[in-house]
């Protein structure tokens, strides 16, 4: 059960790029959560998945020689969902469909994957930490950085409309 939580079932075993598959699955799950309960459900689910993932990753890697196995993707789910917060909140505030903001969805996906793979600054620092902190925190920080990119680009894209 713990491995199934960490790997999101079979998705963490897809090759190549299990983290990218996990992020893609997270986008679809975020859309479903947004449809079911809007931004607030996505926010609550992100907090719950982060807590669940932190616990499950700690248990799954406790006696393992590999402290960050590639099949563990629950961290990508939490990080990708954070990256999608501006999209979900923006869609809710505008009364728009989630996919109507597809440029934001695409930007959130690409920015999160870039920050997760390249591990700049604080993402790399978090990745070097021990235990569940090292597995989860880098993706959470990458998600926050991607969310910032999405929010700034959305502001810039909508600025002409706001300015009249």
Summary of the model, kept short:
With 164 residues, this protein is mainly alpha-helical. It has helices at 2-7, 18-61, 74-94, 102-118, 122-127, 131-163.
List the helices and strands and how they pair.
Layout: H1 2-7, H2 18-61, H3 74-94, H4 102-118, H5 122-127, H6 131-163
Helix pairs in contact: 2-3, 2-4, 2-6, 3-4, 3-6, 4-6
Catalytic activity: a 1,2-diacyl-sn-glycero-3-phospho-(1'-sn-glycero-3'-phosphate) + H2O = a 1,2-diacyl-sn-glycero-3-phospho-(1'-sn-glycerol) + phosphate
Pathway: Phospholipid metabolism; phosphatidylglycerol biosynthesis; phosphatidylglycerol from CDP-diacylglycerol: step 2/2
EC number: 3.1.3.27
Low-pLDDT ranges: none
* CA-atom Rg in angstroms: 16 Å
Number of helices: 6
N-end to C-end Cα span: 54 Å
Oligomer: single chain
Structural class of the secondary structure composition?
A: mainly alpha
Topology pattern, helix = H, strand = E: HHHHHH
Classify the helix fraction into a percent range: over 70%
- Biggest beta sheet attributes: none
Give the CA-based shape: globular
Q: Quick check: average pLDDT? A: 94
**Per DSSP, what share of the residues sits in E-state strands of 2 or more residues?**
under 5%
- Strand runs, count: 0
